[in-house]
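TEACHING EXERCISE
Course module: macromolecular assemblies
Task: Read the component lines below, then compare them to the predicted structure of the full complex.
Student: A.B.
Group: 4
Components provided:
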Amino acid sequence: MSQPLRLGIAGLGTVGVGVVRIIRQHAELLTARSGRDISISAVSARSKNKDRGIPLDAYAWEDDPVALATRDDVDVFVELMGGSDGPAKAATEAALAAGKHVITANKALLALHGQALAEQAEAANLSLRYEAAVAGGIPVVKALTEGLAANEITRVMGVMNGSCNYILTRMEDSGLNYQDIFAEADGLGYLEADPQLDVGGIDAAHKLAILASIAFGTRVNFDAIDLEGIERVSIEDITAAADMGYKIKLLGVAQMTGRGLEQRMQPCLVPASSPLGQLQGGTNMVVLEGHAVEQVVLRGPGAGEGPTASAVMADVMDIARGFALPVFGQPAHTLKDAKHATSVLPAPYYLRMGLVDKPGALAKITTVLGDAGVSIDRMRQYGHAQTSAPVLIVTHKATRADIDAAIAAMEGTGVLTSAPVALRIEEV
Amino acid sequence: MSQPLRLGIAGLGTVGVGVVRIIRQHAELLTARSGRDISISAVSARSKNKDRGIPLDAYAWEDDPVALATRDDVDVFVELMGGSDGPAKAATEAALAAGKHVITANKALLALHGQALAEQAEAANLSLRYEAAVAGGIPVVKALTEGLAANEITRVMGVMNGSCNYILTRMEDSGLNYQDIFAEADGLGYLEADPQLDVGGIDAAHKLAILASIAFGTRVNFDAIDLEGIERVSIEDITAAADMGYKIKLLGVAQMTGRGLEQRMQPCLVPASSPLGQLQGGTNMVVLEGHAVEQVVLRGPGAGEGPTASAVMADVMDIARGFALPVFGQPAHTLKDAKHATSVLPAPYYLRMGLVDKPGALAKITTVLGDAGVSIDRMRQYGHAQTSAPVLIVTHKATRADIDAAIAAMEGTGVLTSAPVALRIEEV
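Instructor-supplied answer key:
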C-alpha cells in the first residue's frame, strides 16, 4: 500500500462539507478503488466556529488558505472557495508553486486564468483538475478529455446552469412571467449571491469556455463568448415556442467553423421532443459530438452537495491512482489562440412581433424579410389577420446578420407595435 | 516525446477498420493529446485479401492472432474478433502472458472469463481494458470506474442492446408484430449472426454483468442474471402499455439488496416520459445511480464503426497516457462473490389477460389477486365488461413470487381465455 494521499480543503460550504463527508463515510471504498488511503490534513474557511454538521476536530485549521495550500502535510490542495480572483487564485498559485496538485470547482478561476494556471501546473508536472467546475456531478470533463480523446470534436453544447433551467421550466409550467419566477428561485436559495452570474449566463459561459478549450485545443477565451442571459425571455415567447413544438433553453454551443471558433451562450429554441428540450428543472445536460462517436449525451445534477462532491472526489481518486494529463487535455503551450467567430453558422430563427391593425401590415413584414434574404418556413398570426395580435415566424436558415438587417428594416416600416424578438433555433 | 505505442489489431471487421481509420486519419490529434505517437505494427483477420476500403500494406500481417498478440513489436494487443472462447480467449491470454496490454470489445469474453483474465493481467501489472464492450461509443466504463469512483453505487440500469431497442420501437411505430419486425431488422443486417444473442438478451446481459462487477465490487457473474429476451413481447402489450403511459424496453438492472446482488435483463415497462422511455432505435442509454451523485444518465450510439472505434481508441489513449487501474475498478483478488438474489425487490407489475364472456369473471381475478396479497392500482377492461376483450391491470408493488403465485391461482379459476402476461414496471 502506498502512502496516504493528504488533502488540504479550503472552503467548507456545501461542496466542502460534501467532500469531507465522503472521505469520512466511505474511506474503505475509496481505498479499495484507488489503492491508497485518502486523508484530510487541514481545512480552511471563513468562519472556524460555524456548525457544519460534521466533526472537523481531527483536521488542522488554517485561517489563511495560502498557508493551507503550502503546508508540508498537504499533497493536494482542494479549492472550494470560489471567485475568479482574490484568495482562490492566490492560494491556487501558491499551491502549485509549492509543488501541490490542485483540484478546484471554480469555473470562473479557470475561465479567466486557466491558461496561466495550466502552464504553471504543467511546468511543475502537477495536476490541476476541475471536474466539479462544469456541470456538477456529470463526469463531462473526463468524458471529453479521456472518453472521447480520439475524436475530432465537432460541437459541444449544453444546458449548464440549473438555476436558469429551473426558471425557464417553471415559467412554462406556471404561465408566470420572468420576474415572478426569478423572485421564487431567489427565495428558494437557488441563485448565486450575485444572481447576475446565473441569469446573465455568466456562470454557464465560464463552463462553456472551459469545455471549448478542451474540445478544440484552443486557449480558454471567455471574452469571445456571444453572451446573452435569460432576463429578457418572456412568458409570451415560452408559450408561443411551445405552441410551435419548441422549448426555450439557455443553451451553450461551441463549434469550430471555417472562420474560427464560435462560442454562444444564449436563450435558444430547441425541439420540445429532443433530450435538451425535455430537460426539466435544475438538471444539466451536455451534448458532445465527435467525428467518430457521433453524439454522446450526458445528463445529471448540475449542483448540490453530493453531486458536486462526487466530481471533486473523482479528481481526488484520479490523482490517488497516479493519473496525470494536461489541464485542458493537451499541453497548455500547444493550445492555439482561436480566431473568434461570431454567428457565422446560419440557423433557423424564431421571430415574434406585434403588428398594427392595418391592411397590408403583414405583407410589409414579409416583403422586408424577403428583401433581407430571409425566407419564411412557417408563420402564425393569432386572432384575426388584421388585428394587432402577435405574429410568429419561423425562418429558414439565415445568419444572425441577415436577421438583424431584417429587423432593422422592419422597424422602418411603421407597422410594428412591439420590437421584434429573434431567437435562434438550434439543431440538436 | 516517448516511444510510440505500438498496436497489434486482431479482427478487421467494422470496428477494426474504424480503429485503423482513426489512427491513419487523426494521428496528429492523438499524439497531441496522449503525448505519444500511436502506431500499428501488425494486423490479423480471417481473410487477408478482402478489400476493406483502407490500405493495410504498411502493417505486418499475421494469420494467427496468437502470433500477432505475442510479437515483439506489439505493446498493446487489440482484440476485436469476438467470441467468448476460441481464438479471442487464446490470444488474449497469450498477449497477457507475453507482457502486452490488452484492449478488447468482447463482452462475452469478459462476462464469462473476466475474473481469470483480470487476475492474470493484474498479476503482471498489465492493463486489460474494454470500454467498447459496453454500450458502444458511450464512455460508461470510464464513468463508472473513474468518474463516479467515490460513489457507493446503488443501481446500474440500462438499455444496452440497440437491435432489441430498434425492434421494440419499430413495433410501436408500425403496429406490426414481433416476427415481422424481427425479419426486417435481420434483413437490414442489424442482428448478430446468431440473432439469439441479441433478441434473447444475452449480449445485453453480458454487458450488465460487467457493469455490475465494477459497480458493486463483485466477481462478474453472468449466470446469475435473471434473463428474458424480447421474443415474447407482443404488439398487444406494446400498445396496451403505451395506452397506460409506458414503453416496453429490454432493460438491464443491477442492484445490491439486503439479500444479495440482484441482476435482471428482461422486458420491462418504464414511463413513456422518462429518458429511458424516450429512447428510440439503436441508441443505448445507461443510468448510473450513486449515493453522492444521485443519478447520471449517459446516452449514445450502441454500435457502429465510428462509435465503437472511438471507445477502443479511448482505451488506447489511456494506455498511451500511462493510466493504469484494476480491470474492474478495484483489484480482482478483492472482488467478492456476491450472493445471488433473484427478484427480491418488489415493483409494480403490468398484467394482461383475456377473460371469458361470463358474469363474475373479473371478480374472480381480482379476488385471486387480493388473496395473493397483490393489490390493484389501476385496471382497464376494453370493450363491454362482459366480453372477452383484454383486461389490463397495474398492480401496486409486489414481489415476483407474489405475482407468480397470483398467476398460478388465476389459471385455476377457469375464466382465462389467454395466459396472463406479467411485466415488471421499473421505477426509473
